[in-house]
Structures are given as structure tokens and as C-alpha cells.
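FAQ: What does a ligand-bound record look like?

Like this one, built around D-xylitol-5-phosphate:
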Amino acid sequence: MTRDIKIAPSILSADFARIGEEIDAIEAQGADWVHVDVMDGHFVPNLTFGPPIAAAMRPHIKTVMDVHLMIAPVDPYLEAFAKAGADYLTIHAEAGPHLHRSLAAIRDLGCKAGVALNPSTPASAIQHVMDLVDLVLVMTVNPGFGGQSFIAPMVDKVAEVKQMIGDRDILIEIDGGITPTTAPLVVKAGADVLVAGSAVFSGGTVETADIYGKNIAAIRKAAGV
Ligand code: DX5
Ligand code: ZN
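The answer part, i.e. the structure of the complex:
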């Protein structure tokens, strides 16, 4: 397979007290993108951080800053995350009543626009906004926590989204439970970007970052790319 599959380690599984060093380490070990999970304790039952910490990460990110907003409402915070330096700014289809307007606002702020789908949300929810998105994020766990098990029926949703995209220039990203076992399933169905938190960070630290490299390589190898 010669497809260009990106691996995007989720910094949710990193040591937050050493976040800059962790970003440097994963990029040195082969990460293609850095996935930044923002949670509000309302849209999802967990809290992470807001725009100032995202901005503090930015100078460390030499690749692509991929910000996943698990927050509602989302509109009041788009500008702050754009200013924090997001390259991709992804919002949830379930986060507000005016998805079309929110996606247009992201592009107006100069970011690539992403839309995420919770496991229970059908692909058809984004059918009428496809011309406003650069990325579709298919959640393969319920958002909120790292280390959860992959929800296998989501593979069919990935294939459905792939069909909906047709020849448009839109990436499919997968988030949740990605391991060397699950990666090939979603790549076969059409995934372009694989987010992985525990599968990248487990067993390693900044001091033993070669383990991150081995973990990234194992996902790549299993995905056949
Ligand atoms: C879940 C987050 C994910 C999470 C993935 O709500 O959006 O990015 O960190 O973690 P793993 O790869 O451990 O399932
Ligand atoms: Zn995420």
C-alpha cells in the first residue's frame, strides 16, 4: 500500500507537566501531527486545558497542530484556539445547533475546518456541510478519556464517510482505541490520519522516547504503510 497515512499522537496520554518536551520527543520519533484534546467537563465528562496552554504548546509543534475541541458551546472559543495556533480546528457535529455557521467561522479564522462524529451520530449528520470541511474525524470511542476500547462497528461508518467524500479533498481521521490491531481495519475502510494516545505513549517517557518511536512504527507497520 502506498497511501500516505499520518500518525497523530494524542498529547492526552503525555506527561502534562513536561508537555513541551513530550511534543519534541514524539516529533523526533516520527509523529506526523500532534493531536491536542480539549475537554470542558460539560460536552464530555472530563477536563483538560484551554487556549493559553494550547498556545504554550505551539512553539514546540514543528509538524501540524491538530486541535480537537470536545466543548459546547464551541463558537465563543474558536477565535482563541485559532490565535493559539491551531492548523486544524475540529469541532463536534453534536456541539451546537449551527454546525454550518461554526465551520464557516473556522475557515474565516484561517484554519482548516474539521468535524467530528460521536459513535452514535450517523454519517448523514454532516451530509450537507461537506463543502465546508477539510477533515472528518470519526470517533471510535465515546470522547472523554484515553485508553478506551475501539468500537468495531465504526469501521462501517468510516467506509460510509469515505463514500460521501467522493473526490473532494477531505481527510478522514480516526480517534479512539487505535492500536496495531485496529489500525489496519480503519485504514482499509479509508482512514488517512490515525490518532493514538495510549498506543504511542505507553511504556515510554521523555527519557526513553525511543519507545514512542517503536510504538509509532508498530502502528505504521500494522497499517501497511
Ligand atoms: C478521546 C480523545 C482521544 C484520546 C485517544 O476523547 O479524543 O484523542 O486521547 O486515546 P487512545 O488512543 O488512548 O484511545
Ligand atoms: Zn481526540
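Follow-up question: can I read anything off the structure? Yes, for example: Residues 210-223 form the longest helix (14 residues).
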